[in-house]
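Issue 218. Parser rejects a valid record. Input:
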Amino acid sequence: MSKRLNIALPESTMSRIESVKEMTDAASYTDVIRSALLTYEALVEFLSDGNKFYVKKPNSDQYEPVRFIFDVKTKAAA
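Output the parser choked on:
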């Protein structure tokens, strides 16, 4: 069953959503938000297991840790 959610977003946020929609060829704003939520959920799950993300920039052999703007509690070891 689907639920309808109406939200008011600032113009700057809508511009960002529009930009992502265009970059990803998403069919709708709903698709952008749905994909963002699924990605966020997967990222939080991955980080909660104690994993780390690193990025390798073009033309570099160095890996740098990715810093996120949120904290995730790590699951307790069993």
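Fixed in the parser; the record now loads. The helical segments are 11-24, 29-48.
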